[in-house]
Amino acid sequence: MTAQTLGYTTRRGQRLLEQHTSRRRRRHEANEKLYEASQSRLVINRFARHRLAMVSLVLLVCVYLIALFAEFIAPYDKLERFADQPYAGPTRVHVIDAEGNWHAPFVYKSSIRIDPTSFTYKSVQDTTQRYPVELFSKTEPYKLAGLIPLHHRLFGIDGAQPIFLFGADHLGRDSFSRAIYGSRISLLVGFGGVLISFLLGIVIGGISGYFGGVIDTVCQRLIELIISIPLIPLWMALSAAVPQSWSGIQTYFAITLILSLVGWTGLARVVRGKVIALREEDYVTAARVSAAGTASIIGKHLIPGLTSYLIVHITIAVPAMILGETTLSFLGLGISAPDVSWGSLLQESQDVTVVSNYPWLLMPAAFLVVAVILFNFVGDGMRDAADPYQH
Q1: Helix or strand or coil: residue 96?
Q2: Do 168 and 235 contact (CB within 8 A), yes or no?
Q3: b/e map of 89-116 (b: 16 or more CB within 10 Å)?
Q4: Rounded mean pLDDT of 116-136?
Q5: Which of 62, 76, 156, 273 fits a disulfide with 137 by CB distance 3.0 to 4.6 angstroms?
Q6: Looking at residue 61, what is its pLDDT?
Q7: Secondary structure class of 55 (helix, strand, coil)
Q8: What distance in Å separates the CA atoms of residue 342 and residue 183, rounded to the nearest whole number?
Q9: What is the pLDDT, as a whole number, of residue 316?
């Protein structure tokens, strides 16, 4: 081996040793930081290593951003009608025309005809007319979230030909736009309902578990009474009490309240059981001996011991609330026209004949399934991260 080769091998070995030492030092520093970190920091660090949960969280944030900016994302207003396009199928976007030439994305002019054999609506394309798809298409003035005036939408067609990514309904309204608008109510009702039921479950469960005795007995009998009532009939009865003259916003808050009033019982029972186990701990006894108030003991010593479970409960309860709103609206007891939600959009799917001929009307169900799956994946990650000391 020559001296030059030997020198190269030595330098390469030194670099590898330095890199290995540097990695070990960084890993050691990271472990030291975690050793001194708070519980919340440990939970966040463990959750960040759960790749599926992190990807689901990012996608879930994107879904909520789409719902927040629905007016900009949707190419048309939720009530805009194209009278000559009833039950129009999903629009096919082309980049190659009938002659084989390449173009920017475009659609052909289409018209609706009744099939004489099946008596269903069919889309017929005219390949002689092309309509380019435009990004940031200029439209009629509108207000984003009812506040910010805008004149452009994310995409659209310059001309009389509409673009229906998910087809159209029986009135010629764009199903994609209506699903985007409907996501705003369906997704936000979950957070509103969980917030109220969350507070009820913690307060009633905490009081029941801490005091025990007659108070515990009364709380548990109340919980058992609510649980014993069939859920769907209870929803129907409470929804029937909502006046038909109420606006969409009023109905939204009524549904949120209805879902909250029957959704806190499970959390209250779990909180009660955990409070009973924690109230005999030494640190709680020390707080009681030091003349700490009841509210202080529950709020500062008992509830923090339930933090990991409460975080996981939220991620599981939100999709349950979303499904509850969808069920009510699907049954015609929730959001009604002119407002839309995923449940109200699925009302047409009750007719099997319509669904078999126009399956794109089920697209809101796909939105619902995706949202619930993402919440469940995030919940799995939070459950794994809730005990950061587990190896």
Answers
A1: strand
A2: no
A3: bbbeebeeeeeeeeeeebbbebebeeee
A4: 80
A5: 156
A6: 92
A7: helix
A8: 6
A9: 79
User: What size, in residues, is the chain?
Assistant: 391
Show the tokens assigned to 209.
């578990």
Encode pLDDT of 25-42 as tens digits.
665 555 555 555 566 677
What is the distance between the alpha carbons of residues 360 and 88, in angstroms, rounded to a whole number? 10
- Cβ neighbours of residue 340 closer than 8 Å, sequence gap 6 or more: 78, 178, 181, 182, 185
Q: 68 and 77 in contact (C-beta within 8 Å)?
A: no
Rounded Cα distance between 380 and 52, Å, is 9
Distance CA 69, CA 184 (A): 9
Q: What pTM was estimated for this model as a whole?
A: 0.77
CA dist., res. 279 & res. 333, Å (int): 43
Write out the two tokens for 376.
């469940």
Question: Residue 98 in contact with residue 214, Cβ under 8 Å?
Answer: no
Mapped onto helix, strand or coil, the DSSP state of residue 104 is strand
**Token pair listed for 294:** 């009841």
pLDDT at 8: 46
User: pLDDT tens digits, residue range 336-375?
Assistant: 777 888 888 888 777 777 778 888 888 888 888 898 899 8
φ and ψ at 367, to 5 degrees? -60, -45
Hey, what amino acid is at 382?
A: M
Rounded Cα distance, 368 and 346, in Å: 11
How far is 62 from 85, CA to CA, in rounded Å? Answer: 31
- Check residues 253 and 370 and name the one with the higher pLDDT: 370
Report yes or no: 268 and 200 within 8 Å, Cβ to Cβ: yes
Phi, psi values for residue 378, rounded to 5°: -65, -40
Name the phi and psi angles at 156, rounded to 5. 180, -175
Residue with tokens 């005809």: 113
CB 269: neighbour CB atoms within 10 A?
20
Three-state DSSP state, 299: helix
CA dist., res. 56 & res. 48, Å (int): 12
Name the more confident of 346 and 115: 346
Can you read off the two tokens belonging to residue 263? 């959704």
Count of Cβ atoms closer than 10 Å to residue 290 Cβ: 9
